[in-house]
Design goal:
The chain is mostly helical. The chain is 70% helix and 0% strand.
Length: 210
């Protein structure tokens, strides 16, 4: 007698299809076929594709904020969480797009939120400011990785870069002066710079807290 398909097996199969075909190629039918079952069998666990995506999004962040060192500063805690989110999103094809638009009430989501909020409240922030800041940090990381994962690796950007440089040299002097930024694509450096700017702003706000 065939054993029932577990929820974790379905999510695992969905990840394999995601990595092979991307978010557009992920369907309940493909997931069912990969497991050797019919699509209606999946509805015992997931009523829709969005419900499956929600479960995938939750699984992706299972390792985020699992090991926050005791006594770590709020800044290092937020750095750690943002970096771990980026790693989690990049671990899967279209990972950030999978997470975008999901609204979850799970242990993983609340654990991450609690860690971020606690770090900021401990530094003197109100719980409300800490909560919105924690969300902003996730939004920045998610949006950044969406762009990062959308970058074509087929060399097509070289021609675009040449056109950009030519136009900048002719008509846009400030863009031309900053041309090395456009020429060198260093996602790691840019992510850290943007993250540092956010944290600097948070630090300024914390300094004005009554």
């Amino acid at each position: 007698m065939r054993q029932p398909i577990a929820r974790e097996q379905i999510v695992g199969a969905a990840f394999r299809i995601l990595d092979e075909a991307g978010l557009e190629g992920l369907t309940l039918r493909k997931v069912a076929c990969s497991l050797g079952i019919r699509a209606p069998s999946l509805y015992w666990h997931f009523k829709s594709k969005q419900a499956l995506i929600d479960a995938m999004a939750d699984a992706m962040i299972a390792d985020v904020a699992q090991a926050i060192p005791n006594g770590q500063s709020w800044r290092q805690t937020l750095l750690q969480i943002a970096r771990e989110f980026r790693i989690a999103f990049k671990a899967r094809r279209d990972g950030a797009r999978v997470y975008a638009g999901t609204f979850l009430a799970t242990e993983n989501v609340l654990r991450v939120g609690e860690a971020s909020i606690a770090a900021l409240v401990g530094a003197g922030a109100s719980a409300c400011f800490a909560a919105t800041t924690a969300m902003d940090l996730v939004y920045y990381t998610m949006g950044y990785v969406i762009e990062e994962q959308s970058w074509p690796g087929d060399g097509s950007m070289e021609a675009l870069g040449e056109a950009f440089m030519a136009l900048a040299e002719q008509r846009f002097p400030h863009c031309w002066e900053a041309r090395e930024v456009w020429r060198e694509v260093d996602f790691d450096t840019r992510f850290e710079q943007g993250l540092a700017l956010m944290l600097d702003g948070i630090e300024l706000r914390l300094g004005r807290t009554p």
